[in-house]
């Protein structure tokens, strides 16, 4: 009996050598806590925004419950949480293998979307699965980040390999597919991931400048060839007619002042077109206040800082590149969404990670988070030994 109690008390302790015990002590639990805090905030925010969207989508024949989207989001949150924890247990070689297989599958799915995808608001970005709409480009992003990191890491084995032309070709091909849907926002984010990975890889400054110039050229081309982009940019810069969502989002966000009008008491959210997805940050501002919005921004920056601290002593080149790309995707998407809600950027239809409503969005960002947690795992005993060796010198 005494030995059984002793074993129970040491379960998941530092002496535990089971797979679960090793995972628990290698995992960055601070990073996990930051991610879970976003997930909890997201459930609360969707509960606040759900009545506005449910009322907007209800009709004489169909009346949606006020918390309809919250119930669905809660179910997806459970799936996302389990997915994230399972992926965080993968070793690095399995992470790379999973990402490469996932990348190939999502490219095929995106090609399929262009042909047979469901068209919503003039864009073919979704595959209707009956119980949910599947957006392949959402799942492509984390797999893309790991895939191009793997390609760039080849240069450690053979510097003569044309790794940069290869990832430029891959990125250009994906950008072409995305613009056929069309999806300018995801194209910009994918280009940002590519830029971040190349920058960390140690490329010369003039090549970075040339890459940045290519990005600006791409935006200019999109403006003259993509009518939706031109309309949104004109509305943002010149206040032309047709789109007032950004100004409406900003006025909703600031309506609550520092502390908000209170949960469920917001009124301006009912005039927002996508209160539960694109403009959920504005709903948070109205009902919970600007201080709550500031806290969310701080959490995203805390995730960046925490990951950077984990990478400072990382020796594996592939891991550094892959985690850089994944964090760029995660926090870059957050910053774009927040900038849109603040009226600092044209509307892009991009969700706020772990906070906006959406099965594809929530599930894909859980994959991103799981990959980050898996790649930043560190044996604390080995890390301590390394510190002691440096100190003894």
Automatic annotation (TrEMBL):
Keywords: Cell cycle, Cell division, Cell shape, Glycosyltransferase, Membrane, Peptidoglycan synthesis, Transferase, Transmembrane, Transmembrane helix. One of its GO terms (molecular function) is peptidoglycan glycosyltransferase activity. It comes from Sphingorhabdus lutea. The chain crosses the membrane at residues 30-49, 69-87, 99-119, 139-156, 163-180, 186-203, 210-229, 288-309, 321-342, 354-375. It is found in: Membrane. The keyword Cell cycle applies. This is Probable peptidoglycan glycosyltransferase FtsW. Its EC number is 2.4.99.28. GO terms for cellular component: cell division site; plasma membrane. One of its GO terms (biological process) is peptidoglycan biosynthetic process. Belongs to the SEDS family. FtsW subfamily. It holds the Pfam family FTSW_RODA_SPOVE. InterPro entries: FtsW/RodA (IPR001182). It catalyses: [GlcNAc-(1->4)-Mur2Ac(oyl-L-Ala-gamma-D-Glu-L-Lys-D-Ala-D-Ala)](n)-di-trans,octa-cis-undecaprenyl diphosphate + beta-D-GlcNAc-(1->4)-Mur2Ac(oyl-L-Ala-gamma-D-Glu-L-Lys-D-Ala-D-Ala)-di-trans,octa-cis-undecaprenyl diphosphate = [GlcNAc-(1->4)-Mur2Ac(oyl-L-Ala-gamma-D-Glu-L-Lys-D-Ala-D-Ala)](n+1)-di-trans,octa-cis-undecaprenyl diphosphate + di-trans,octa-cis-undecaprenyl diphosphate + H(+). The keyword Membrane applies. It is a multi-pass membrane protein. Its main location: membrane.
């Amino acid at each position: 009996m005494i030995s059984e109690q002793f074993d129970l008390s040491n379960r998941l302790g530092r002496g535990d050598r089971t797979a679960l015990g090793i995972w628990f002590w290698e995992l960055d639990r601070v990073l996990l806590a930051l991610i879970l805090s976003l997930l909890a905030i997201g459930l609360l925010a969707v509960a606040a925004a759900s009545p506005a969207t449910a009322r907007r989508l209800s009709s004489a024949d169909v009346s949606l419950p006020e918390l309809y989207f919250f119930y669905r989001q809660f179910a997806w949150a459970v799936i996302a949480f389990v997915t994230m924890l399972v992926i965080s247990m993968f070793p690095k070689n399995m992470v790379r293998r999973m990402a490469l297989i996932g990348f190939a599958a999502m490219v095929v799915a995106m090609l399929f979307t262009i042909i047979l995808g469901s068209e919503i608001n003039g864009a073919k970005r979704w595959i209707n699965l009956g119980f949910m709409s599947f957006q392949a480009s959402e799942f492509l992003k984390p797999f893309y980040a790991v895939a191009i990191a793997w390609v760039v890491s080849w240069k450690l084995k053979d510097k003569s390999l044309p790794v940069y032309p290869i990832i430029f070709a891959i990125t250009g091909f994906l950008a072409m597919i995305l613009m056929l849907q069309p999806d300018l926002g995801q194209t910009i984010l994918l280009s940002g991931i590519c830029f971040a990975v190349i920058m960390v890889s140690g490329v010369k400054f003039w090549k970075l400048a040339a890459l940045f110039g290519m990005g600006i050229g791409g935006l200019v081309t999109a403006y003259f060839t993509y009518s939706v982009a031109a309309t949104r940019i004109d509305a943002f810069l010149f206040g032309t007619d047709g789109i007032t969502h950004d100004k409406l989002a900003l006025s909703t966000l600031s309506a609550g002042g520092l502390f908000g009008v209170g949960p469920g008491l917001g009124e301006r959210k009912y005039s927002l077109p996508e209160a539960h997805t694109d403009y959920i940050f504005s709903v948070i501002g109205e009902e919970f206040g600007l201080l709550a919005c500031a806290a969310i921004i701080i959490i995203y920056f805390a995730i960046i800082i925490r990951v950077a601290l984990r990478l400072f002593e990382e020796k594996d080149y592939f891991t550094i590149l892959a985690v850089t790309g994944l964090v760029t995707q995660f926090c870059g998407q957050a910053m774009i969404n927040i900038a849109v809600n603040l009226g600092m950027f044209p509307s892009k239809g991009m969700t706020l990670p772990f906070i906006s409503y959406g099965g594809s969005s929530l599930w894909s960002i859980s994959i991103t988070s799981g990959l980050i947690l898996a790649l930043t795992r560190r044996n604390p005993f080995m890390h301590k030994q390394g510190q002691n060796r440096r100190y003894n010198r």
